[in-house]
């Protein structure tokens, strides 16, 4: 069975510029004469064989609604996009003048995505309001390519999607290469014992997320002042009194550790502690201590991710002036190493589910199980409101209770896929005690 590179492509632009017609013509070969407003997003899937790359590319095309009332939904669909088509109607100058707004959104929500500017309705030569030269000049000034198309006459449709697919593939490969180089370039930290950084066996994201679901609070303590400088609550609100209890409990435990260090004459870099406040895992470096507080004791295999996160944080701090340390994005590092974004409250958007199930994109579960899980989300919205976010733990609990046939592994796999497709959109909480 041939290997496919999965690429997410978003199509954006003002309403009625022909985004759906363009995507439909490419994906199905059909052209729709009558105009129908896209409600939120339409989804098209097409696999192509790129002879120049020698690769099979599977494009998941998110055709977004251009009307103002749908724009608050767009961040849901931009996530993890590798390519973007910014479309304007060459017979409508207003749509051309809106290109800057669409470009700003793309670079905000998917900054690495390849971008192709697309002039649509090239068949309407008698009504041109934006010339080819203007479109090309805008694209060149914004470091992207330009192409004119006509979905009706099938002009440059294949070329348009082949080009953005190819550029998106290069983006994906560059991201993969950068991650590999970053991993290889890391040197063992002087503050972490070799036995602690011994490579663990590769674990699937599903297994990893099953462990992370137990995490509920994160603290970062500056060892120079012996005080927390960063905190993040996951899944529930922590009030000041509870935070104070955490810190008090941690302080008492730290004192016990220091006494043990004096008795043994060696430095203790990793410690575990359980009390009424939770299960504490403390990773101690030369600058910071990273404290993870769990509801339940996780398996030791998650320990490597904690060390990796602390090591990168200290490497960054060591290379920066003290005045610039506050610019370090601790939350981003935690997302990178611990995947905590799956624990954020998540906005629910069910607009895509019917199309995805129909096109068998949710193949890891049976159609019946997917429909049961979607019903869980629908009932949650009916019980609260369409805009009420849900957490992964809430979804796991409800799915267990209401479906009675889904396993934890199936639910966790489903959550990962739902986030990837923008059906669940994590809302990053505000950290506390920022430096």
Explain what the structure shows.
The protein has 435 residues and is an alpha/beta fold. It has three domains: 4-178, Rossmann fold, CATH 3.40.50; 202-342, 2-Layer Sandwich (Beta-Lactamase), CATH 3.30.450; 346-426. Helices cover 40% and strands 20% of the residues. It contains 14 helices and 13 strands. The strands form three sheets. The chain has a six-stranded mixed beta sheet with strand order 2-3-1-4-5-6, with helices on both faces. A five-stranded antiparallel beta sheet has the order 8-7-11-10-9, sandwiched between helices. β10 (278-284) and β11 form a beta hairpin. α9 (303-318) packs antiparallel against α10 (330-338) and α13 (392-403) packs across α14 (408-420). The longest helix is centred in the middle third of the chain and has 29 residues, at 157-185. The protein is elongated and about 85 Å long. The N and C termini lie far apart (52 Å). The model is unreliable at 186-203 (pLDDT under 50).
* Rg: 25 Å
Q: Can you tell me the CATH topology of the largest domain?
A: Rossmann fold
What is the number of helical segments per DSSP (H or I, 4+ residues)? Answer: 14
Let me know the largest β-sheet.
6 strands, mixed
Q: CATH superfamily of the largest domain, please? A: P-loop containing nucleotide triphosphate hydrolases
Tell me the distance between the termini: 52 Å
Oligomer: single chain
SSE-based structural type: alpha/beta
Question: Residue share in helices?
Answer: 40-55%
CATH hierarchy: architecture of the largest domain? 3-Layer(aba) Sandwich
3D shape:
elongated
Contiguous uncertain segments of 5+ residues? 186-203
């Amino acid at each position: 069975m041939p290997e496919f590179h999965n690429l997410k492509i978003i199509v954006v632009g003002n309403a009625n510029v022909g985004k759906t017609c363009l995507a439909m013509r490419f994906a199905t070969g059909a052209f729709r004469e009558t105009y129908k407003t896209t409600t939120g997003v339409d989804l098209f899937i097409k696999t192509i064989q790129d002879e120049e790359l020698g690769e099979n590319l599977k494009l998941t095309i998110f055709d977004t609604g251009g009307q103002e009332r749908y724009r608050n939904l767009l961040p849901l669909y931009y996530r993890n996009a590798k390519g973007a088509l910014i479309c304007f109607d060459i017979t409508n100058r207003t749509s051309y003048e809106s290109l800057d707004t669409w470009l700003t959104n793309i670079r905000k929500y998917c900054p690495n995505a390849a971008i192709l500017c697309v002039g649509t309705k090239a068949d309407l030569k008698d009504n041109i309001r934006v010339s080819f030269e203007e479109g090309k000049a805008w694209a060149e000034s914004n470091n992207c390519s330009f192409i004119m198309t006509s979905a009706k006459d099938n002009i440059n449709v294949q070329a348009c999607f082949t080009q953005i697919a190819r550029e998106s593939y290069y983006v994906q490969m560059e991201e993969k290469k950068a991650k590999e180089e970053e991993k290889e370039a890391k040197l063992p930290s002087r503050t972490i014992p070799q036995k602690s950084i011994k490579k663990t066996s590769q674990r699937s994201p599903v297994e990893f997320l099953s462990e992370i679901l137990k995490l509920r609070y994160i603290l970062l303590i500056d060892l120079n002042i012996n005080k927390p400088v960063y905190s993040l609550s996951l899944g529930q609100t922590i009030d000041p009194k509870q935070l104070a209890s955490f810190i008090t409990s941690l302080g008492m435990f730290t004192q016990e550790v220091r006494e043990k260090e004096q008795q043994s004459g060696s430095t203790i870099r990793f410690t575990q502690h359980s009390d009424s406040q939770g299960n504490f895992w403390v990773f101690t470096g030369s600058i910071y201590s990273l404290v993870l507080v769990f509801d339940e004791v996780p398996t030791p295999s998650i320990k490597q991710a904690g060390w990796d996160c602390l090591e990168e944080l200290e490497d960054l701090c060591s290379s920066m002036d003290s005045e610039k340390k506050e610019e370090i994005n601790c939350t981003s590092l935690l997302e990178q190493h611990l995947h905590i974004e799956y624990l954020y409250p998540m906005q629910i958007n069910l607009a895509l589910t019917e199309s995805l199930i129909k096109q068998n994109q949710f193949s890891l579960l049976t159609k019946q199980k997917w429909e049961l899980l979607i019903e869980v989300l629908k009932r949650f919205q009916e019980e609260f409101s369409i805009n009420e976010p849900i957490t992964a733990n809430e979804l796991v609990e409800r799915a267990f209770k209401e479906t009675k046939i889904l396993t934890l592994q199936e639910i966790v796999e489903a959550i990962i896929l739902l986030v990837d497709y923008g059906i669940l959109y994590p809302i990053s909480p505000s950290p506390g005690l920022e430096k």
